[in-house]
Inverse folding.
């Protein structure tokens, strides 16, 4: 599995043929390998036969419903990430899903881009324990700054700025893609788990705080890319 989940094998269970084919095309265009099933029983047999790295499961399925299918798959592979799709937005359904160990619950209709970022966020969280086992928390240079994500500090010369957890995570996400665009949706879903209006306003506040921290080095700046997101630009010395 490569960065952002490319080549991840997704088991997609959706009985709406049109939506199923649209999701297959969209996910495959973003580098995923997708196997589509239209009912729970065939999906379970397919999982037993070939496995998968990730499951996206509709709740309302003929025969075996999505909750039952999720429970059966979790019995076979408890750590596999699962996202539930449902036209039902009742709190009880969401609680039932999370009690089964699902990683996210998306209510229909939904935006395909949001689904993509939610998949990537789940994959990033799932990979984190493995990444932590392979390396310590990184201490990296950003221009004249030393960014220590473990100790939540951003140091410039003799001045050390203590950061909040969210400030550190947002800066870390931008720093992992220096001079490249990181979308607002990707940041919000990865940090907050949601991408609504209020989360967007919170992100604006955090970006403003980070900009104030980075002003000590004019070669480093967070640039807003209208309608897309942000880019952490670092000029080479």
């Amino acid at each position: 599995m490569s960065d952002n989940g490319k080549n991840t094998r997704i088991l997609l269970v959706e009985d709406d043929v049109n939506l199923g084919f649209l999701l297959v095309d969209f996910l495959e265009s973003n580098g995923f390998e997708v196997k589509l099933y239209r009912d729970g029983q065939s999906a379970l047999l397919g999982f037993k036969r070939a496995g998968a790295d990730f499951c996206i499961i509709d709740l309302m399925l003929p025969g075996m419903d999505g909750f039952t299918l999720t429970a059966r798959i979790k019995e076979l592979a408890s750590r596999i990430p699962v996202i539930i799709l449902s036209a039902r937005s009742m709190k009880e359904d969401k609680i039932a899903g999370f009690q089964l160990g699902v990683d996210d619950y998306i209510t229909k209709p939904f935006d395909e881009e949001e689904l993509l970022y939610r998949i990537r966020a789940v994959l990033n969280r799932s990979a984190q324990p493995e990444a932590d086992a392979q390396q310590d928390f990184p201490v990296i240079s950003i221009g004249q700054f030393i960014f220590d994500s473990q100790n939540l500090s951003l140091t410039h010369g003799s001045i050390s700025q203590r950061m909040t957890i969210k400030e550190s995570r947002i800066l870390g996400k931008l720093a992992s893609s220096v001079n490249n665009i990181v979308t607002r949706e990707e940041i919000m879903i990865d940090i907050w788990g949601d991408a609504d209006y209020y989360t967007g306003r919170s992100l604006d506040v955090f970006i403003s705080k980070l900009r104030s921290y980075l002003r000590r080095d004019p070669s480093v700046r967070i640039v807003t890319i209208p309608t897309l997101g942000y880019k952490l630009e670092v000029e080479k010395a």
